[in-house]
Amino acid sequence: xxxxxxxxxxxxxxxxxxxxxxxxxxxxxxxxxxxxxxxxxxxxxxxxxxxxxxxxxxxxxxxxxxxxxxxxxxxxxxxxxxxxxxxxxxxxxxxxxxxxxxxxxxxxxxxxxxxxxxxxxxxxxxxxxxxxxxxxxxxxxxxxxxxxxxxxxxxxxxxxxxxxxxxxxxxxxxxxxxxxxxxxxxxxxxxxxxxxxxxxxxxxxxxxxxxxxxxxxxxxxxxxxxxxxxxxxxxxxxxxxxxxxxxxxxxxxxxxxxxxxxxxxxxxxxxxxxxxxxxxxxxxxxxxxxxxxxxxxxxxxxxxxxxxxxxxxxxxxxxxxxxxxxxxxxxxxxxxxxxxxxxxxxxxxxxxxxxxxxxxxxxxxxxxxxxxxxxxxxxxxxxx
Length: 384
What we know:
By secondary structure, the protein is an alpha/beta fold. 43% of the residues lie in helices and 19% in strands. The chain has twelve helices and 15 strands. The strands form four sheets. The protein has a five-stranded parallel β-sheet with strand order 2-1-3-4-5. A four-stranded parallel β-sheet has the order 7-6-8-9, with helices on one face. Strands 10-14-15 form a three-stranded antiparallel β-sheet, with helices on one face. The longest helix is centred in the N-terminal third of the chain and has 24 residues. It starts with a helix and ends with a strand.
């Protein structure tokens, strides 16, 4: 009789074990989505939701469920929505989109937020930056510099709120730079600063002195030499062979134009900038070319844009592609990790190939392996 009860007890334990295993193996991957669905930024949020729908369709797994919640682009509403997601058992959340909405999220325990921001400074411990950050961009620029045997790079950074982010990225990427200059974006101040950085006044004076010397000489080819000199802007070289500019849009164009004014031409010195997201206006500015910059995989972006347009009859923003990849990334990580061990999910060293490119994950940090592009003669070319 005792033996019978012992066997019966063992059977019950086995049944319970395999029953729990079956439930565990069929456990849904609940992914929260914190995006603006109302307010000025609602179109961004709506497109992100559409991109996650495409991701679910492409992954084709019944294990994933997406739960969108509105942030209204407001930190308080973001916190409230995050608590609501936690209450229904969500362990991992894509979002928020904007850095300013992260400030209260460290109040929520046992949840990881994969934000779409590209900022990495002063993040709450439970927030991972999933955007194309400055370190990822400098890692790519560093590779380009090495391949082209560039020896002396100066770094130009505008006096704006992302200045500390750039300084952190320079340190993390271990990129070697000759000098780092912080400049004022106000046009007259910018020109004066670029003149100083390029030693323009001395080089200009060198030219004027040489013209005067030749004029006062009795050289047989004096007229020919003067003709050549008067076509020049300066005499003397600068102490760098490349310029890295962490700027964008019209401000970037102003900096390169100021360099041209001081006789530092992109045709003689390599001009490298940060991710311009394939800004087509740069293609039209042939006087400031060639320019080099890192960015995501353009071919994959085009394929995604076409797929998105076919599905929704509109073209997506770049954050849509990022959120598409984040769904795939979380699904990939969940195949080898239990979501109950959410704190370990992004600590292990992993790599994931998405539409943007390759993600490198380790120690709660995501870096992107980016491509590098050249804008030259009105055309965009992939370098690597």
